[in-house]
Amino acid sequence: MKTAIVTDSTAYIPNELRDQYDIKMIPLSVILGGESYREEVDISASDFYQEVKHEEKLPTTSQPSVGSFVELYEDLAKEYDAVISIHLSSGISGTYQGAVQAGDMVEGIQVYPYDSEISCMVQGFYPIYASKLASEGVEPEEIVQKLDEMKETVSAYFMVDDLAHLQRGGRLSAAQAIIGSLLQVKPLLHFQEKVIVPFEKIRTRKKAMKRIVELLDNDIQKGYPMQVVIIHANREEEAEKWKEELEEKYPDTDFSVSYFGPVIGTHLGEGSMGMGWSRKM
């Protein structure tokens, strides 16, 4: 059976890796200045962060239409028998549900929608692993089972730098934002039951980043090989420096750098920093 691998743009898998592993991508969109842009297609992360500085209104986001999923799956049906379609957490977007609906509508290809229950390049771990398995001829049901096994080892933590941004988006009251800014509070967030929830409140950026490393260290001490990604919102230099420090501390662990693109960046704001990891399967 020939199996295609699909994910959405919020995995932020670099083009060269998508090409290498033959991963198909369906984009989400960001609405900025009255215009709709497909992220990773019409607008890059760096362009987004530049443009958003000049806008008074906070951008909004939209998921792919069911029709765009149907079109993609029907096109894949010409060459493939099955498709595993891996998407950002269903707790923060209807994208996964769109894949489910489209899968019920197409004929000639078996669709396996998969809820990563997370986002960004940590989500990207799943399609890369799935592609490796598919290329080895592993059946789709077994690939899904192995993705579930990897999910048991996945963790991710995000630090929001700009409380005012969260407040503008209606996710924090004005009073909380003012008090938090005065105290330099950096909320540490994580995914729990498919939604983003507070993990801890930490006083400074430096302490928040140190706390994330402590959480990483707890899992590294379990002794299995790890893949780790540092994720930034327009803070590439800081992310690269952090990567260098961690590579020196943990030479047997694979580190990479990725970013919060337009859709996720809309909700977290510039300056946010995160880290995610899983067992290297």
From TrEMBL:
SUPFAM superfamilies: DAK1/DegV-like (SSF82549). It comes from the Bacteria. Coiled coil: none annotated. GO terms for molecular function: lipid binding. The keyword Transmembrane does not apply. Signal peptide: none annotated. Keywords: Lipid-binding. PROSITE patterns: DEGV. The keyword Transport does not apply. InterPro entries: DegV, DegV_C, DegV_domain_contain. NCBIfam families: DegV. PANTHER family: DEGV DOMAIN-CONTAINING PROTEIN DR_1986-RELATED, FATTY ACID-BINDING PROTEIN TM_1468. This is DegV family protein.
